[in-house]
Amino acid sequence: MAPGQPVDDLFLLASANQAQSRNGPYWNITFQDATGKIDGKIWSPKSQDYPSLEPGLVVRVKGFVESYRDKSQLRVDHMAILEADDPDVDLADFLPTSCVPPEELMEAVEDLVTEHMKHGPWKKFCKKVLGNTEIRSRMLTAPGAKTVHHAYVGGLLEHTLQVSRACMALCDVYPALDRQTLLAGAIFHDLGKAWELSGGPANDYTDEGRLFGHIQIGVEKLEPFLKKSKTLDDGLKMHLKHLITSHHGEHEFGSPVRPKTPEAFILHFADNMDAKLNIIDQAYAEMDKTGQDWSPYMRFLERNVYRPTQTPDKSKKNNGKPENQCLLPLKA
Amino acid sequence: MAPGQPVDDLFLLASANQAQSRNGPYWNITFQDATGKIDGKIWSPKSQDYPSLEPGLVVRVKGFVESYRDKSQLRVDHMAILEADDPDVDLADFLPTSCVPPEELMEAVEDLVTEHMKHGPWKKFCKKVLGNTEIRSRMLTAPGAKTVHHAYVGGLLEHTLQVSRACMALCDVYPALDRQTLLAGAIFHDLGKAWELSGGPANDYTDEGRLFGHIQIGVEKLEPFLKKSKTLDDGLKMHLKHLITSHHGEHEFGSPVRPKTPEAFILHFADNMDAKLNIIDQAYAEMDKTGQDWSPYMRFLERNVYRPTQTPDKSKKNNGKPENQCLLPLKA
Amino acid sequence: MAPGQPVDDLFLLASANQAQSRNGPYWNITFQDATGKIDGKIWSPKSQDYPSLEPGLVVRVKGFVESYRDKSQLRVDHMAILEADDPDVDLADFLPTSCVPPEELMEAVEDLVTEHMKHGPWKKFCKKVLGNTEIRSRMLTAPGAKTVHHAYVGGLLEHTLQVSRACMALCDVYPALDRQTLLAGAIFHDLGKAWELSGGPANDYTDEGRLFGHIQIGVEKLEPFLKKSKTLDDGLKMHLKHLITSHHGEHEFGSPVRPKTPEAFILHFADNMDAKLNIIDQAYAEMDKTGQDWSPYMRFLERNVYRPTQTPDKSKKNNGKPENQCLLPLKA
Amino acid sequence: MAPGQPVDDLFLLASANQAQSRNGPYWNITFQDATGKIDGKIWSPKSQDYPSLEPGLVVRVKGFVESYRDKSQLRVDHMAILEADDPDVDLADFLPTSCVPPEELMEAVEDLVTEHMKHGPWKKFCKKVLGNTEIRSRMLTAPGAKTVHHAYVGGLLEHTLQVSRACMALCDVYPALDRQTLLAGAIFHDLGKAWELSGGPANDYTDEGRLFGHIQIGVEKLEPFLKKSKTLDDGLKMHLKHLITSHHGEHEFGSPVRPKTPEAFILHFADNMDAKLNIIDQAYAEMDKTGQDWSPYMRFLERNVYRPTQTPDKSKKNNGKPENQCLLPLKA
Amino acid sequence: MAPGQPVDDLFLLASANQAQSRNGPYWNITFQDATGKIDGKIWSPKSQDYPSLEPGLVVRVKGFVESYRDKSQLRVDHMAILEADDPDVDLADFLPTSCVPPEELMEAVEDLVTEHMKHGPWKKFCKKVLGNTEIRSRMLTAPGAKTVHHAYVGGLLEHTLQVSRACMALCDVYPALDRQTLLAGAIFHDLGKAWELSGGPANDYTDEGRLFGHIQIGVEKLEPFLKKSKTLDDGLKMHLKHLITSHHGEHEFGSPVRPKTPEAFILHFADNMDAKLNIIDQAYAEMDKTGQDWSPYMRFLERNVYRPTQTPDKSKKNNGKPENQCLLPLKA
Amino acid sequence: MAPGQPVDDLFLLASANQAQSRNGPYWNITFQDATGKIDGKIWSPKSQDYPSLEPGLVVRVKGFVESYRDKSQLRVDHMAILEADDPDVDLADFLPTSCVPPEELMEAVEDLVTEHMKHGPWKKFCKKVLGNTEIRSRMLTAPGAKTVHHAYVGGLLEHTLQVSRACMALCDVYPALDRQTLLAGAIFHDLGKAWELSGGPANDYTDEGRLFGHIQIGVEKLEPFLKKSKTLDDGLKMHLKHLITSHHGEHEFGSPVRPKTPEAFILHFADNMDAKLNIIDQAYAEMDKTGQDWSPYMRFLERNVYRPTQTPDKSKKNNGKPENQCLLPLKA
């Protein structure tokens, strides 16, 4: 939303705090919809029409976008609070979501199981876990991280799918790898994230997330399924647990142990790589808006990112940029 | 060669130094053939039959393998020096070499160019460089590193081929990547190693190698070809040079700059991954001899490596272990 | 055992490998009893009396202590293998053990529970876990680490007891701490070590130990007891699990998460402190033998350790040195 | 002070700078009293009533608390400057101070000397130093650090007392420690801080503090007392100096040498632990105001801190929270 | 420019962005002249007189300096845009420049060549490079860094000259050093910076600068001159290239290789030292304005810097402070 | 001493330990003279002629140099112990010493004081300290470090002189520096080393050295002289103490504080540089013996060092190598 632009739209209140100026109380609000967030103000005396406001409310806002200290800011002229049971209101409409719907991502993960899992016990184990109601429903909405990468509904699945694909592709290059155990590891490596993060409008760490971390949570969630599987070899179970436990690669990234098998190295690399490529993709999306070749300094990558000249490629219509803004090439 | 075993064989002298014991002078020798190295002694008075010995000589040795301080050691009972022009002597027979002959590896690299390089200027550039007599002949014999990984004739090509394949496989998963520039980067990322290392029996760093490093040497070797290519876009040339310059990933690994494009990240990961998998493969080869599940502590990886239980796979005959000891699956 | 000394004693074979010298095959053996280990040789032709030897055998050795390259070495003149069912042979006699018998250490731990656990559910939980047959029997023999500190039978319990005592003492200084949860954390913080290490003559890491680490193993072992405890508040369970998960303090020491509560900080400090004091105690014991003020360089502490002048203290009979060589002051 | 609240109170000016707005000059002021600090403004034209203002003045302010960019800010409507010799003005009233008065803390330290120092020369030495007029008066007012922990009048003594108590408690657990030398080290470990920091309203580093650090200053201050003590053994003096010199534990925390004795390890741990617990206590005090379970991100600890569920404890009336806001339990 | 001061002067627009307030659009501008930069605003409705403004314009401004959030800010009352071909306008007048004019600095560098280069091929090589039109013109204007040190026209030459002088002075102390190769290395060590940075009003990194770094660029620029020099020994060429390649000293500062010769160590130290002294000189210049003894915290040096008491020195007129604000003592 | 060479010479016993072989007791001895050390053996039965041997004895040895595991080793055939009061025995003859006699080095340091110290109080202070009997006698014999650099009698003075010269040379390049305070700092920066190291045949750390470090010892030794100097400004004293306290540059090298003044930066650089150049000089001396261009891996520098091609220089007779093996060019 560019400064100078009038606004008349629906938003979710992501936060709402009352403050006090010389001219009386006012509201500091963060408005959110599926495309992002914007800060805003309801100045006095209009502010006094809203004795209380709470995150999670859906509102219709009329106002105007100003710029304040180099950031856009929404000045509210009028704001109506929608009823929670308003048939027009679906909270999901206000949360950013993966381009490919989470259900399709889940299906693509299941297709990988079908394609690569030739060993019955592995196939059965994966289907059991993915078919579990709580796990499935959490995976379908969980983000892939708090803020840096894949921080949207479906983000965990999108990341899971690409890491799994990368692992399978590398098994073609290194055929001595144990493809099936690696796939199981790839699919479940970040399972704990579905409990580590709250998801939803706030998407913050949960208590469990901060106190244990997603690695330990993930192993704990798989444990009952491992116990129940009578046909899966104990050595394979141990390897799967090692893949999950070691996937951060180094102690300083929170891995209790470091990779000790080639499959564990591959999983760590694929995980790391996909997170970084997703961050760059998001930077590219921003850079495309302004036509810049260099991103601003990116704290997480500790560098600026560059969009280089692309090799001309007749087979790609628009030369390296996806046709729509869906980041994930589902049907690659 | 196990202790207690008699020996009657041809060897290359990798090193030969005279020493002095209470009983007179003796020779400390390192014998080498294509399968490895073994230290040995010629004790006095037999030692006095050889007033001088030099690395590079080929000899026929009769003797006996002893164990000394937990290492095997060859006691020489008789040693005859072969003439340099002996038709039976081919130095190459005494150097460890990649399983797949270097010429086939080079062909496989060229096949990748043919398969993926659709942009004429890229294809032409790669063919020019690979067709250059000096470059080609150096690449065909160069090792991939001094000691840790791919330290054998053909090692550079083997590493180059697998890194290139890994990059191409990942382009299938991330189709927005510039596949052709990435392939050029993968093929030439370690080109400088062919000058950084002497190869041959000693395989030590060259003066240039220690004073500049293979990154700078590699860029320098490509520079004349880049200058000559009139059709290749300047931005693509710049990207290729960035891929090579940044492929060590972090300053602390000797990268003058860090990766700034997604292709540069991918190349760094593929390079790192292939080196580590080669180290593990070598550890596995040793572990197979003794039937151990755990490798000894590996200084370079800073850990012990484990061979996990393999998922039963009917499609693999010998379950995860290559049929012969060739590490590289050429016809994957 | 000083060089020049004749030997006639019982030992456990900790390792036995055959080697080959110019004079025929010989045996490299590590002999062990409760006071330590010594390397030795059986030279040819006597070596040929023993076609095979295996770790775990108990033998009676006559021989002589030589010094070889600054280390003592036992030359075997005669060696008789005892029958496994020999009534004189108790394997435990050949393993180093804590001065205070493990059973007394366990009792002392249980006394702490009785003394400090005023909240019924905590007391019941601790008694259940400590009363479990497998856990109790493993805790009674487990070492506290592989080599560096507490590497003897009872070592885990000795460390557990001192860490628990230190935590309780600090609760007197900082009364706002939750003494009971902290005690539960102290008692069980290293529980996983009873599975991470094999104990016994070899005392090496187990596969589980290397692939998961004792933190994850410990949490896994407690999980069923936590699930079963209906009366213990969920928040307290979560805190206990956090204490165990975070007790290494920093990611680089293998903590998946870092301490987030004051109790977790205290436990980490007490654990770290006790390990270091035990290392210094062992160095002091060595220094006492030779009358040195400075220890040799200690790799784990990365320094030399000093025994300073002690303040004269009439209440201590022998001024700072324990009366016997028992390191742990049980009845303090 | 919450936004929207009228103010009529005495403050110390901690800083006062004139600035210029479109509407004329105004004053940026930091007001301070024993409970904390608040920024404020005197806008034009009222600002022109105060041609000059200086830190250290005591003023009576009438005004109003606004919120500005998420921080409270005091808008001054009227301000009267009190005479320096006003009998109502005691500067100490405007500085934050330890809950337990510094004199009582000093007494508690002296009680520890009486209780534990059985060796005459140690007792005499400690009493001499603590009895020295300059040292005593500085210790009574010195803060424990610039900002992070114990940053208030009496803070140094509070920290000194708790570190000493923790050391004495650990001597009960590890009776081989030299209790008396350790106590001397604990009492004087941070003595240099009384010169490193200016204390007072500004509480910044002094020139000496920045150029030498409190370790070197502390040793320098003790040196004359050590020289004068004829009865104290030289080895004990050396140990005390080592305790002070090494108490930061690692070079990277500014220790010129690292701990080489068990007492030095203990002192370092106790020092580190008390600083961290004090930081957490302060975070808890803030969290109690807002009812949060998690603190904001704490830069010094590099983490968020959690208040866990407390074990029910009938012996504690208010379950883990001190009855008043005094952080230190003096009569524990 | 102090708050409260009226302004009537010429400036270069370093940046100009339009923003939107409640009262209409306004301009955020950064004004620059040779002495520094100041942010400013043109408020509505005056802002509407300037439908577009671009960096690089030269303007005459009348206005007033306000303070806003502790920074000075220029409120524009009137602004006239000068014609680009206005004879009064020389862009160089608006860029900060070394005190000693770049031409004189270049002459001083050339004097060093004349004085120290006794070996014909070295002298000829240096003169060739310095005489090259593109190199000379870039060196005359290039800054020494982006922001931290020597960030002004002539900065590269000033740094080059002082590093060269320091190296020559150290050769007097260590006469075994190869003075001439070291001088060549000192003169050209940062040559690549003339292409790494854009210089000019923006002075940002160029694409080449970010993708390759100035070390690789510098070697590339010298390569043709090295190839052409037939008389210079290959070993000397190799040493010069090593000096440039290794001058950052450590991998983590972006050196592809680390110094391997004494001359390379000296060059690295001299380079590092001169950069730090220049930073301190700039801090001193700021501190002199306010009479402070301590600088504010300096992020690059990670510390505050102190101006100590100076030894009285009759030979220096103004006791350690240069007579004018020229930082470089050209005729030392 | 090359293997195969007969020996008939005087040595100091640097160490002597009895050991036990199959053939009876033998002696492991380290023999030392001014040129270095060599290990040796006295085998049984000759060993039994020497019931006890102690470090510090001077002996005449006849024997033979053997090589053992790539090191030379002296086999003793005959050994006579000289009387301690033998007029032929001067212990100093057996210790390695700086080429330039320590007295001349001291004179050269005093010449620097005379030349540069124009401020009376500085000159007087330096003369007082250097004239003190204990300090002077310790400085004349102290080594510059334990092993790595300047580890010989006179080494401290040699290092002190070169660091002082380097600082003075840099003051010519940076005339704003306070030359006199810097000189005082350079002369006394390592004063504490004369107490930190024992010097003599063993040259190990003293107790004080390990417990406090030479920085604190040095400041302590200067303190009484600083107190006595009435004319030296307090600010100058403070600066001198800061120079000494901060000269290791970074906390991780044991500096309690880091440099805060330009003089402190210069001193740190000069100190660091001189130590490294001395290490390289020693490596060069070894390399000259064997004609190698590359040194072996040097643990302290963490690299191999290279001797590059030297620029031809008619003014140097032997082209970069000193005429004799004196490392220090005293009359430069």
Describe this structure in words.
The structure is a homohexamer of 332-residue chains. Chain A is 39% helix and 17% strand. With 332 residues, chain A is of the alpha+beta class. The first copy, chain A, folds into two domains: 6-91, Nucleic acid-binding proteins (OB fold (Dihydrolipoamide Acetyltransferase, E2P)), CATH 2.40.50; 95-278, Hypothetical protein af1432 (Orthogonal Bundle). Chain A has a five-stranded mixed barrel with strand order 1-2-3-5-4. Mean pLDDT of chain A is 89; it is low at 319-332. Chains in contact: A-B, A-C, A-D, A-E, B-C, B-E, B-F, C-D, C-F, D-E, D-F, E-F. The interface between A and B is large, with 56 and 56 residues.
> Quick one: which chains have the greatest interface?
A-B, 56 and 56 residues
The helix content of chain A, as a percent range, equals 25-40%
Q: What would the principal axes of the Cα set say about the shape of chain A?
A: globular
Helix segment tally of chain A = 10
Low-confidence region ranges of chain A: 319-332
* CATH secondary-structure class of the largest domain in chain A: Mainly Alpha
Spatial order of the strands in the main sheet of chain A? 1-2-3-5-4
Quaternary structure annotation: homohexamer
Largest sheet of chain A: 5 strands, mixed, barrel
Q: Termini distance of chain A?
A: 33 Å
Query: What share of residues are in beta strands of chain A?
Result: 15-25%
| CATH topology heading of the largest domain in chain A | Hypothetical protein af1432
Task: Give the overall average pLDDT of chain A.
Answer: 89
Which class do the helix and strand fractions of chain A yield? alpha+beta
The ordered H/E elements of chain A are EEEEEHHHHHHHHHH
Compute the CA-based radius of gyration of chain A. Answer: 23 Å
How many distinct domains of chain A? 2
Number of strands of chain A: 5
Give the name of the CATH architecture of the largest domain in chain A: Orthogonal Bundle
InterPro entries (chains A, B, C, D, E, F): HD/PDEase_dom (IPR003607), HD_domain (IPR006674), HDIG_dom (IPR006675), NA-bd_OB-fold (IPR012340), NA-bd_OB_tRNA (IPR004365), YhaM_exoribonuc/phosphodiest (IPR050798)
Pfam families (chains A, B, C, D, E, F): HD (PF01966), tRNA_anti-codon (PF01336)
Keywords (chains A, B, C, D, E, F): Hydrolase
Domain HD (chains A, B, C, D, E, F): 156-276
